[in-house]
Amino acid sequence: xxxxxxxxxxxxxxxxxxxxxxxxxxxxxxxxxxxxxxxxxxxxxxxxxxxxxxxxxxxxxxxxxxxxxxxxxxxxxxxxxxxxxxxxxxxxxxxxxxxxxxxxxxxxxxxxxxxxxxxxxxxxxxxxxxxxxxxxxxxxxxxxxxxxxxxxxxxxxxxxxxxxxxxxxxxxxxxxxxxxxxxxxxxxxxxxxxxxxxxxxxxxxxxxxxxxxxxxxxxxxxxxxxxxxxxxxxxxxxxxxxxxxxxxxxxxxxxxxxxxxxxxxxxxxxxxx
Length: 273
Prior knowledge:
This is Protein phosphatase. With about 270 residues, the protein is α+β, with helices and mostly antiparallel strands. It has one domain (about 5-270): Phosphatase 2c, domain 1 (4-Layer Sandwich), CATH 3.60.40.10. Helix content is about 35%, strand content about 25%. It has nine helices and ten strands. It has helices spanning about 45-65, 70-75, 80-100, 150-155, 160-165, 205, 210-220, 225-240, 265-270; strands at about 5-15, 25-30, 35-40, 110-120, 120-130, 130-135, 140-145, 185-190, 200, 245-255. The strands form two sheets. A five-stranded antiparallel β-sheet has the order 1-10-9-6-7. A five-stranded antiparallel β-sheet has the order 2-3-4-5-8, covered by helices on one side. β2 (about 25-30) and β3 (about 35-40) form a beta hairpin. α1 packs antiparallel against α3 and α7 (about 210-220) runs antiparallel to α8 (about 225-240). The two termini are about 25 Å apart.
């Protein structure tokens, strides 16, 4: 199903004001409802390689998953998008890990990941590390994903407050990343989608530089112009210091769309002919 009439998608990626190159990578396919953002890590250009490999591999494999849903529809979870993300992220992790093991200049490279698949009036979200997905719905701005980071663990355990976390020196210590180990567990959840929703995927170069309330306010004020909104978010991060690469993907749900029939319902319809 072509979702270009349903979803408006805008991407931006900027090296920031300090870094010499951009280790973030973004991908969007509005026709399929797939968006992927990765924030690479590693010496030299290894982080750029890890994030680029991740978005490229996931882009091609998720496109194939849309074309061949049957194997995933049979998954125990009952959610083909969740099964597809779980399977293809595992394969991508293996590919990045093997590249790091086989080429010395890429040793230790890895990447965070946040990916969303819009389907059947729902969105399935997968993430690893501290790249985030937010949602603006009916004036309420919400962080949907929960960071896999040392800071988040300290907040959860009550050692520090979210306010103290903003000034912590441990901002970049993630507890989970793609490509670092032979296997990794992506956190995957499914949510209902409503017309008018705006989803923001971002690397920590945005939310480390700009408070959540300012991000949410910008989305509300510029909801009618996603291109300007994305540009403004990047400029805000850079105006506040731009200490890291900053990438954003904005997805607006223009209207509800009917859920495509499953392979089973199509089979029943064929028997009724």
